[in-house]
Structures are given as C-alpha cells and as structure tokens.
Amino acid sequence: MLLNASGCLDGLAAPDVVGQLDAFVTKTVTPLPRGGHEPVRIAETEVGMLNAIGLANSGIERFMAESLPRLVELGKPLWVSVGGFAATEFAQLCGQLDSRPEVSVLELNLSCPNVESLPEGAPAVVAAARAATSKPLFAKLSPAVPDLAETARAVQAAGVDGLSLVNTLRGLALDERTLRPVLAVGVGGLSGPALKPIALAAVFQAYRATGLPIVGMGGVRTGRDAWELIAAGAEAVALGTVLFADPGAPDRIRTELAAEAAAVGVDRPENGRGLAHAERHRQTPSLDPRLRVASSVA
User: ∠ at Cα 254 (248, 256), nearest 5°?
Assistant: First the structure.
C-alpha cells in the first residue's frame, strides 16, 4: 500500500499523482486557520530538504466545508492529518471528523518539528482523541525521543490503531555567502534520503515492540527503499520528498517494489513484512560487500 506523506502532495493540484496512490493523506488540519511561518520556508541541502511551513492551513471549519468535498472526488480513501497544541484540540478535531464517512483514518500529528511542543505527552493526546472518535487512529511520531519503542508502546496502550514513522528531524542550512540561516525561522524539518536509516530503525523497533500496523516513511526514493521498510515491519509506505521531483514516483516505485519482492521469492510485497526480524535473515555485519553477497546466497 502506497500513500503520500502528509504535506508533501497537494491532491487537488495534482490529481494524476493521487491516482497512483492507494490512499491520500491530507495536509495537517488545525482547529483555527494558520498562516504558518514567514518565507523563506523551504531550503534544499546536500542530503535532503528542509522545511519550516509551520502547519499553514485553512482550519477545520473551512476544510470540512470546502476541501473535504473536493478531496472525495479524487476517488481514494482519505486519511486526514490533524494537529493541535493541546490534547483538547486533538479531541475537538477528531470529534468533528468522526461523523464524516468520507474520512477513513485520522492521523495524529504528534511530532511536527516546526511548532511548539505539546504540553501533554503523546499518550494523553491519544487518549483524548480516542475518546472522541471511533475511527482508526494512527500516531505520527518523531524518532527524536530517548526510547521510541517505549513511546510506541505507550501510545498503543492509549488506544492508537497504528503508527506513522517517521516525521522529519530538525536541521539547519546556512547561506554559503552570508553564513546566516537560509530559513526565516532558522531551524526546519529535514526530509529526504538522510532520513532512511533513521526511519528503518524506528519501524524496526516499533514493529518489534508493538506489532501494530505501521506506515513507514523517510527517504523513500526507490522500490528497494520501500521494500526495506516493509522488511523492517511497515505494512504501508508513504512517499514524501520524492514527489516534488518525480510525479511519476508512485507507479515507478510500485513496479520496482514488486520486482524486489519477486527477486527473493515473495509473491506479494506485503508478504515480506517483518522479514528483517526473521532469524534466518540475521547475519554478522561486514564492511566487505563480497561477504554480504556470499551470506545471502548461502
């Protein structure tokens, strides 16, 4: 199952890209409209992209009245990403969307690096949201926590149905001439290739700790990248930064993913979930690629 990462695709502006996906994830919606941060809000780096959008959106009322009816016309299951600054705001949003049959899943954005942190912990927010809706809840977590497995277990106990891993990490880019921050607010969220090993570790740990359905994301550019996230424990894969440069990425990655699975005798990519945890796939790490190939053949 392929989705887009929240905020990385304007579905109404690019319906052809949405058509390649299995579900569409909205930009994060907040209770009130937000203008977001001042420009410059996006910067390219050697290892990915920095953004400091600041959860700019039209607010829940306008979203439900104007955007949601148009998004339904895309013909894909809709995941709505919701964000707030207190547990009560998440509960409010989930309650308002609970009666909307067009919404398949609610994703709780608990880890945006471009806004102030929640005063309550993630489990408290999940518990409040859970009390307000019967819809499936996925918690989007940051890998920048002391113990991701423990956080995953805590939100599982609070009532989430799945996890989205991972959100961006804070990073900084300096202007090569002035040596001042490129982004107006200084620090932003880093996405792109540099996130892949971090995402793999997060998915691997959370799968082992909880067994919950996981949407893996972070640095996915190829079918191989998606295949590794599935092997680590992801049930679905979300595409992010790659969509800015390659609008045909979903179809290409889907084809490459099927080929990666077939190459190791797996009939369907989803049947490869958790392969990285199987005893027969464990081997002693080596810096010599010839040894790695020899081990896989054996």
Answer: 100
Task: Work out the angle between the directed axes of helices 148-158 and 196-210 (0-180°, nearest 10).
Answer: 50
HSE-CB for 194 with a 13 A CA cutoff: 14
Which option is the CATH number for 2-297: 3.20.20.70, 3.40.50.2000, 3.30.450.40, 1.10.260.40?
3.20.20.70
CA dist 194 and 277 (Å) reads 23
Domain boundaries, the chain: 2-297
Residue 112, pLDDT score? 73
- The two beta strands, 48-51 and 187-191, are antiparallel
The token pair at 209 is: 């700790």
Which pTM was predicted? 0.90
pLDDT at 285: 40
Low-confidence ranges of the chain (pLDDT < 50): 281-298
Does residue 8 carry a catalytic annotation? no
Of the candidates 112, 129, 160, 236, the residue annotated as catalytic is: 112
End-to-end C-alpha distance for the chain, whole angstroms: 31
For 223, the enclosing helix (H) or strand (E) is helix 223-232
Q: Give the SS3 label for residue 239.
A: strand
Sheet with 214-217, edge to edge strand ranges = 2-4, 236-239, 214-217, 162-165, 137-140, 103-109, 78-82, 24-25
